[in-house]
Write a structure and sequence with these properties.
The chain has 126 residues and is mostly beta strands. The protein has no helices and 11 strands. Strands 2, 4, 5, 6, 9, 10 and 11 form a 7-stranded mixed beta sheet that branches. A hairpin with a 6-residue loop joins strand 4 and strand 5. The chain is globular. The model has no long low-confidence stretch (mean pLDDT 96).
Length: 126
């Protein structure tokens, strides 16, 4: 059974940093794109960042570019999201995700992804 388990969320002041982790189990995703999405209350789930299998190609939403960094450790079947200069508008539940396809295209639409974690809450206070 495939499982994605996020961790590292919490409460932080504006300007602070957090590092999210997502560990996959049940199968290896070393050849798959991994991504992070987030969903704030009353809003749709939105793409945050994605990374190809090698880590050589990454993509970010405009709202986090320059502040967040996605990385992965294929040996640990884990993807990370380093978040710096956090803003109150970054407050959301953050989800990691991946898909069955081996395409290395970093998709920004949630329906393109097949497996999702349960999410981890990030709250940024002003």
């Amino acid at each position: 059974q495939v499982q994605l388990v996020e961790s590292g969320g919490g409460l932080v002041q504006a300007g602070g940093s957090l590092r999210l982790s997502c560990a996959a189990s049940g199968r290896s995703f070393r050849w798959n794109v991994l991504a992070w999405f987030r969903q704030a209350p009353g809003k749709e789930r939105e793409f945050v960042a994605g990374i190809d299998w090698s880590g050589g190609s990454t993509g970010y939403s405009d709202s986090v570019k320059g502040r967040f960094t996605i990385s992965r450790d294929n040996g640990k079947n884990t993807v990370y999201l380093q978040m710096t200069s956090l803003k109150p508008e970054d407050t959301a539940v953050y989800y990691c995700t991946t898909r069955q396809s081996l395409s290395q295209q970093i998709e920004i639409f949630s329906y393109k992804y097949d497996y999702w974690g349960q999410g981890t809450q990030v709250t940024v206070s002003s």
